[in-house]
Specification:
Length: 190
């Protein structure tokens, strides 16, 4: 999934939110199939989201990352905002969050929240949970929603300024919805 330019909270938080959404969208509950099905898929996810300091990935890491994914899905799936906050706070605590300043890849100083040498599940959990905490504190749940495309259950985070994003992917779900609307207008006109 292409990354949107940092617009809402700054590069580090925007990346953490994107990683959280992309991780929950690997679950069968949102995507219809298990997309984090093996170590290679986990390595691909970690590489795509630039979780480079996690060390060697083994099959033992997969269940722990899936458990973090389930916890993030619970956070984003509850309608009760107080419960979402409670779940985020618990994940922050359980991942051993260790805030520290970092600068890399041409980005200015920003925060990292995982302990150096943390397991992949703790690294992902800390970064995603802290990003959600910042977003919740600033905007509540306004930026998180389910894709508007009929039949799609994927989640999205809207990092645009005007908060008008409706589809998880404009090239698939968005185009599909626009084509269906166009065809419906043509049928109605004839």
């Amino acid at each position: 999934m292409p990354r949107m330019a940092a617009t809402a909270f700054g590069h580090d938080i925007d990346c953490g939110l994107g990683a959280a959404i992309d991780l929950v969208n690997t679950a069968p509950e949102t995507g219809g199939a298990e997309l984090l099905d093996d170590v290679d898929a986990l390595r691909g996810f970690l590489s795509e989201h630039r979780f480079e300091t996690v060390g060697e990935i083994t099959p033992d890491h997969l269940p722990a990352v899936r458990a973090v994914r389930s916890r993030l899905l619970a956070v984003l799936g509850t309608e009760d905002f107080d419960e979402a906050v409670r779940l985020v706070n618990a994940l922050i605590t359980d991942t051993g969050t260790t805030p520290r300043l970092a600068r890399h890849d041409g980005h200015p100083w920003h925060m990292h929240y995982y302990a150096p040498g943390a397991a992949p599940s703790d690294h992902i959990g800390a970064e995603c949970a802290m990003s959600l905490a910042f977003a919740f504190a600033a905007d509540g749940r306004d930026r998180f929603r389910e894709c508007a495309s009929p039949g799609c259950r994927r989640l999205l985070v809207d990092l645009s300024r005007n908060r008008c994003k409706r589809f998880c992917d404009s090239r698939t779900c968005g185009n599909r919805a626009h084509v269906a609307a166009y065809r419906a207008r043509r049928r109605a006109a004839s």
